[in-house]
Specification:
Length: 361
C-alpha cells in the first residue's frame, strides 16, 4: 500500500485524502511531493503552497528531526517515535506519534511520513491523573489531620494544666514552648486541609478576582518584577466563590513572584476555551487564566509532585499553597495545570463557565 501511494495511484491518494492521520510524501531531496488534508490542517499550510518546498519550511525549528529523516534515506531503515514534540512555523508546539518509512526500501524512492496528533489524549490523561491525585491527596491529608489533631489537643491541654501547677514562674517558659509548638503544628495541619466550608457561589467577573490579587501583591513585588495584564474582557460572569478563587490565584501569583527571584515578568492572561474537556466532562465554555513567569522554573524531579502538600524547593516554604489552590479550583469543577521549561513556567487555571455538563463520549 505504501509503495502504491508513493507512486500516487489515484484510488489510494483518495484514501489518504480522507485519513485523519497526517500524511506527507517527500522525495529523496526532502522536498514535499504530497500532503493530505489532515497534514494541511496540522501544519496550517496548503499542498499548493508547500509542494516542491523543503520539509524544513514546515519545521524550521527542528533540524534534529529533519536530520533523522535524512538518515532514513541513508540507512534505508524507517522508524516510529511516540509522543514526539515538534515546533511548527508559528511557534506552535504539538505532540505526535510519528512513523517514517522509505518506499520499497530503495534510497531513491520517496519517504512517507505519517503523524497522528496526540496532544488532546495526553492532556485528558494528564488531567485525569491530576484529578485523581487531588482526590487521593485530600483523603490522605484528612486522615493525617485526624490522627495528629487529637493528640495535639491533649498535649496542649496537659501543658496548660501543668503550667497552672508549677510553683516556679521560670519553669513556665518550657510549658509555653510546648503550647506554642502545638499551636504551630495545629496551624500547619489546618493549612494543609485548606478551607473546610463549601463554596459560597455568587455571580462574579474573573477580572475582579485577578485585579484584587494584583492589588494585594503589588505591595510585595520587588522593584525588578513587572506584572502585565492580557485580558479578554468579553469573558462573561459565572458562578463561583470569590474568596476561594482569590486565594487560589494569590497562591500561584506569589509562587511566580518568588520564582523570578526579584527580576522578571509575570503575565496574567485570560481567554475563553470552547468545547473543552476537563477530566472526562466536556464543557461548552471554559475560562482559562494563564499565570506565566520567566523565572527559574520548576526542577524536573518536582514537576510531577508540585500539587502534593509539603512539596517545595524553598527552605522557608511550607509547600501547601499549590495543593490548596488545586483543591479550591477542583471544588468548582475546574483544574490547575502546569507547564515549565527553561525561562518560562505557566500555571493554567481552567474553570467551567456553564455548570451544565455532558459526558465526553
Amino acid at each position: 500500500m505504501v509503495s502504491l501511494l508513493l507512486k500516487k495511484e489515484a484510488p489510494l491518494s483518495n484514501i489518504a485524502d480522507n485519513l485523519s492521520t497526517s500524511v506527507l510524501v517527500l522525495n529523496q531531496f526532502l522536498m514535499i511531493e504530497y500532503m493530505n488534508p489532515a497534514a494541511e490542517v496540522l501544519f496550517a499550510a496548503s499542498l499548493r503552497q508547500s509542494q516542491g518546498q523543503p520539509i524544513k519550511e514546515l519545521l524550521p525549528a527542528e533540524p534534529a528531526f529533519i536530520e533523522k529523516i535524512r538518515q532514513v534515506l541513508k540507512d534505508a531503515q524507517g522508524f516510529t517515535q511516540h509522543e514526539l514534540a515538534l515546533i511548527l512555523t508559528d511557534d506552535k508546539r504539538i505532540t505526535v506519534d510519528c512513523t517514517v518509512n522509505i518506499g520499497d526500501g530503495d534510497p531513491e524512492s520517496c519517504l512517507l511520513i505519517e503523524m497522528k496528533q496526540v496532544d488532546r489524549h495526553l492532556r485528558i490523561s494528564r488531567e485525569e491523573r491530576l484529578l485523581a491525585q487531588n482526590v487521593a491527596t485530600r483523603a490522605l491529608v484528612r486522615g493525617f489531620a485526624h490522627e495528629v489533631k487529637n493528640p495535639l489537643g491533649g498535649l496542649r491541654g496537659a501543658a496548660q494544666l501543668l503550667e497552672a501547677e508549677l510553683p516556679d514562674e521560670s519553669l513556665k517558659e518550657y510549658t509555653q514552648i510546648i503550647i506554642g509548638e502545638a499551636d504551630r503544628l495545629q496551624s500547619l495541619v489546618d493549612g494543609m486541609l485548606g478551607p473546610n466550608s463549601l463554596p459560597n457561589v455568587t455571580k462574579l467577573n474573573v477580572h475582579e478576582v485577578i485585579e484584587r490579587v494584583r492589588s494585594l501583591v503589588l505591595a510585595e513585588v520587588p522593584e525588578g518584577v513587572r506584572i502585565i495584564r492580557n485580558y479578554d474582557v468579553s469573558i462573561p460572569e459565572f458562578m463561583a466563590d470569590k474568596d476561594q478563587l482569590i486565594q487560589s490565584v494569590l497562591n500561584i501569583v506569589r509562587n511566580a513572584i518568588e520564582a523570578t527571584e526579584g527580576q522578571g515578568t509575570i503575565e496574567l492572561k485570560t481567554r475563553i476555551e470552547r468545547q473543552l474537556t476537563i477530566g472526562n466532562i466536556r464543557h461548552r465554555h471554559v475560562m482559562r487564566l494563564d499565570i506565566t513567569d520567566d523565572g527559574v522554573g520548576i526542577p524536573e524531579e518536582m514537576q510531577q509532585r508540585i500539587f502534593y502538600p509539603m512539596v517545595t524547593s524553598r527552605a522557608e516554604g511550607t509547600g501547601v499553597g499549590l495543593s490548596i489552590a488545586q483543591s479550591l479550583v477542583s471544588r468548582h469543577g475546574g483544574l490547575i495545570e502546569c507547564s515549565t521549561q527553561s525561562g518560562k513556567t505557566c500555571f493554567t487555571i481552567l474553570l467551567p463557565i456553564e455548570m451544565e455538563k455532558n459526558k465526553d463520549e
